Amino acid sequence: MSKRSRKQKRKQRTIQQQPTKSKKGEKRALPTLQETEDYIREHNLEVINPLSDFGFKRLLASERNKDILIHLLNAFISEDTGVITEVTFLPTELLGIKKEDKYVRFDLYCKNQDGDRFIVEMQNGKQQHYADRLRVYTSFATVQNLKPGDDKYEHVPRVYSFNMMSYCLPEFKGRGNFYWRVCLKDDDNEIFTKNTAYYFVELSKFAAQLGTIDMGDERNRLLYMFTNVVYLPKKEINNLTPMQLRFYKECQITNFTDMEKQDYVKSLMEHDDVREMVECERNEAKEEGIQIGIGLGIEQGIERGIEQGIERGRAERNRQIILSLLENGFDIATIEKVTGMSEAEILALKE
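RE: above sequence
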């Protein structure tokens, strides 16, 4: 097959697999109430996934559920901050000083009654250099609260980064713990400062160890709800703690307004659209890799051909994926979560 024929075939397949309910350059329209109910019934949806972007923000980033957020932060962070009694939600996008400066966007950003800042992230897709990304995030949250000429550094707010991960961080690879607290220490392992600290929960490790975990620990009870509320057996509901029951009820779709149901279904459809488009491109790369491998031998040739084909087409393929997603109205935050690429990588491919 000629190179031109392969391109035509790939273009046609991409067109066929692009979402049919969204016009090019537009975001998917909000489904009608009837379409929403049909989707919920067809997919047997009863409880939202709190680890999804929609579920995470509904559960933790809303005024009505402040008590759940406060409970979560106290369970994991109060050893450094003291008891949190109140939180105020802050804008999740922080801009640089000049227009061309870097800006950052958080999943959730808030402060407590003492002015301490909290960045809360749910990370579903792997990110390269995630630890460095968090250093940038906490730096932004620190300097954004300093005023020109203010040299009284005792007024610098304390900043804490709480991260829930659906995967294992490379920095913790091979170690069994699923919860990590990271802060600045000296050579004698003494804490130098607790005014900035990072907290990581590796949910995949938690789920793998569920059978041996102490469920009397409040942290573990909360993590259990995040990872298992969708699959929670009806017989367990009566044994939930008051906070677990509160958590469960907020995840029940029957408690949603019609608009909330429509927003949730729209988010699921958009996620499926992105996933299908990315999967299509991956399959194309693999197919081209096999074609390149013809003539190099059977097993060895195919294996080597796949590697060469994927490597050769990676830069252009990624660029086409990003351009296609952007043209179809998907924002950078959504693309980050589904592709696992960083904002800088996405913007670089866009140029």
